[in-house]
Amino acid sequence: MDAYKPAGFWIRFLATVIDSVLIAVLAAIIAVISNDPTYFNNSGYGGENSVSENISGFVYSVVFIIIFTASRYMGSPGKLACRIQVMNTDMTKISMLKSIGRYFAYILSALPLLIGFMMAGWNEEKKALHDIICSTRVVYRKKGN
Prior knowledge:
Layout: H1 9-34, H2 37-41, H3 51-70, H4 77-81, E1 84-88, H5 96-110, H6 115-118, H7 129-134, E2 136-140
Antiparallel strand pairs: 1-2
């Protein structure tokens, strides 16, 4: 089996930034289609999320993070754009149940101060806390995949 190169903190951070931009675009599209007045009147600083932001966050989380990660794509659109993928530690595709568990393990990675995410930059295997909890790896895609 050919070795996969682990994806470190910064490439994973870039994938998250791309996903965040896509969530914002999806929220704007939903707001325009639904004529969501709270989306257009919200300054975005300290206010509550609009219905469009909540819907887009939920849809993106379920479809593009959980389902895509367990599918043949093996990652969110941000991970696809960065040419990285999520795999089991034995380098096989993860299951839907593991993808859901990994998504909820993000909460533990976020507490406290996002240190669980930063762990991907500190350890040799480039694993974040949620990867350790769920026995997953984030690695660069092979050429042609």
